[in-house]
Amino acid sequence: MKKMYVFFMLIVFLSITVLSENYTFIFKDVQLFYTVSNETSFFVPEGFDVLWISGVDSWELKKVYQHFPFKITSLEDYTQKSIEAIDEDIYKIVGTNEILFFNPQLNRWCVTDEKNKDKIQPPTQILLKNPKNAVIALKGEGSWEIIYEMKNDGTFSKNVQINGVPVGQTNLYLVNEYLNLSPRDYLESTKLLSNTRMASEDDFEIVAQEAILSQTYTMNLGRVNFQNSLMNVRISQNDILSYEDRNVINFSLYTNITNYTKTEIIRHVENTKYNGLGIELPSGKVWIHEEFDSESFPIKLAYINDTPVGDTFKINLGESWDVQYKIEKLSDVEVKSANSRIVDLLISVKNFSKGKQIVNLSMSTPNIEIDEMQIEGNYQNLKNNSEKGKIDIVFDIIDEVRIRMTIKTILRE
Prior knowledge:
Layout: E1 22-26, E2 31-37, E3 41-44, E4 48-54, E5 58-63, E6 71-72, E7 83-87, E8 90-93, E9 98-103, E10 108-113, H1 117-120, E11 124-129, E12 134-140, E13 142-150, E14 155-164, E15 168-175, H2 183-196, H3 204-211, E16 218-226, E17 230-239, E18 244-250, E19 257-270, E20 284-292, E21 295-304, E22 312-335, E23 340-351, E24 357-364, E25 368-384, E26 390-410
Parallel strand pairs: 1-15, 13-20, 18-24
Antiparallel strand pairs: 1-2, 2-12, 3-11, 4-12, 5-11, 6-10, 7-8, 8-9, 9-10, 13-14, 14-17, 15-16, 18-19, 19-22, 20-21, 22-23, 23-26, 24-26, 25-26
């Protein structure tokens, strides 16, 4: 895995470019770093490649080699020694203070003291001719993801985890898009705008935002001190008033389960203001907390799909230990005269817990509808939301329930 560097390489005896206002856009698969400057030279930070530079008459890249003591050696001298890779063509000689490296200037392998390790890789310097609010665009490795947390008391946190190349103080934007799906659109539009619209370095924020308007979702984190390769930031925290954990039984016309099996627990949460939420919920991981000895611990990792305000998101909590079911197909008949198919099922559900559990029977298939249904056993609050093309039945189970269901479907319209 390529090493992420925390700080820019600082070279004491070289003049260091003072960075002007910086802008960082982290996509799902890449990090773009922009700086606006009127300086005639700029050192490229470790971990970045140059994309383009505008606002100058011309520019060129230069490797800045440093002076440090080393001696030419042969790899044969190290065949019996243990070495550890530090970077490409750079190795640590185990048990010594020596560093083995390949010198491209001499095209030979060399060895130096460990204290000279940071001087082996020459930094890249950009030389700019007549810069006028020049925009320097760099590209590095980067990604981000939304990570939510939900506790039993309804506390719901929205966090963002950022993985990238640290750049220090920067205006940070997170873009919910993969740059490599359409790199030309974003890069070329930003380059064009920076060439034609820049009056001062303060204009670049507007320029960059215009270039990114077509993206699906962008978070502006403001001015951030991005000092570490991995950073987690809390965006918001809400108190959800209510949610519902359902034991979901998904089945089809072909289902025939003769032995009891566990249901799936699906948590239903309304993303509405009156339920304590009503916020943008882009897709991401969610940690579900459980309490042990009065302490809350995140022990289940699930996933949330993109959920707009006003919709309901669902979290799969895994298999239930409390509710089990079986579905026996009693008959399956094709009635050609009625151009239909009739399926008769017996659904048995058992509750092994001490309290009530919510059960949700669910099927979604074009043209299906319930022809007949009989339910017996210990249950409460039955809600039949079924309609043509969908079976959706919810009830509270006390201990055991048996449902005889006849489903009809049209074979051909």
